[in-house]
Write a structure and sequence with these properties.
Largest sheet: 5 strands, mixed
Number of strands: 5
Number of domains: 1
Radius of gyration: 19 Å
Distance between the termini: 52 Å
Order of helices and strands: EHEHHEHHHHEEHHHHH
Structural class: alpha/beta
Strand content: 5-15%
Length: 261
């Protein structure tokens, strides 16, 4: 169903909308809602940088893990935006790096554990060790530099981010990037996206929600049970990423939530 006024977008063929993200930051809801709104020329991916795609594939091979699927779309869009001088409107959500990593780990449970999900066989302590030793924890810490900066030429760390508001934009030449905290209420996200894209109205519908997954109860138990070592909390909480997007109070909350007593 097209929103009123969206037909004007159909004449803006030189404009491309990207929902370009690090994964597990609420991007599917944004993308599907924009598609439902009738926005044309829109793509959804978490990697476009050919060098990064190959690096991720190689890391998975070395760990004996299946190679991630879906990067073909990113490579196709990468070649597309280099052959056509689009004006790019990019939406890239951010999320607390610890919760983001935990969510991404569970989303790819079978890939990282090598086992089919069976709730009655889950060992929480073993899962924690698997998370700490097999997951690529630096993804949120490096993603903006390896993807947005290298592909779109936009340095999100080059401009201050309004941490308390949770929404900011960064621009360079033909590209504008909307940075929006995953933790905001839907109404705040809707308002930011509507203004960024110049839509007459916009509403989010929730898609790909963790609580609806087959592993939902185990994931809930895992989050309620685990505590993370100080070395891990230091790595996440002291990162450039966390310090750029989150207030001192929010970072303290991250640390307190997961620290060992």
């Amino acid at each position: 169903m097209n929103l009123p006024g969206v037909r004007s977008w159909l004449r803006r063929r030189e404009l491309k909308v990207l929902v370009y993200h690090m994964g597990k930051v609420g991007s599917t809801s944004i993308f599907e809602s924009l598609v439902s709104a009738g926005i044309p020329n829109i793509n959804h991916m978490n990697r476009m940088n050919p060098n990064n795609i190959e690096l991720v594939r190689q890391e998975h091979r070395e760990r004996g893990l299946p190679v991630p699927e879906g990067d073909e779309e990113g490579l196709r869009v990468y070649n597309d935006i280099r052959s056509i001088p689009y004006r790019i409107q990019c939406i890239s959500p951010v999320r607390d790096p610890i919760r983001r990593n935990l969510s991404a780990f569970f989303f790819s449970y079978e890939r990282f554990t090598g086992e089919r999900y069976e709730q009655d066989r889950i060992d929480i302590d073993r899962l924690l060790q698997c998370f700490l030793t097999t997951y690529s924890h630096d993804v949120p810490l490096t993603w903006f530099d390896t993807e947005i900066k290298q592909v779109l030429g936009v340095d999100v760390y080059g401009c201050p981010f309004p941490k308390k508001i949770g929404v900011g934009t960064v621009s360079r030449r033909n590209c504008r990037v909307l940075l929006i905290k995953c933790e905001l209420h839907d109404a705040e996200k809707e308002s930011a996206i509507k203004e960024f894209l110049g839509l007459p109205s916009f509403s989010l519908r929730n898609e790909n929600v963790g609580r609806d997954k087959v592993y939902a109860e185990t994931y809930k138990q895992f989050l309620q049970t685990i505590k993370l070592p100080d070395s891990y909390l230091d790595r996440m909480c002291n990162s450039k990423y966390a310090r750029h997007f989150y207030t001192d109070e929010e970072i303290t909350g991250m640390r307190e939530r997961w620290k060992c007593i």
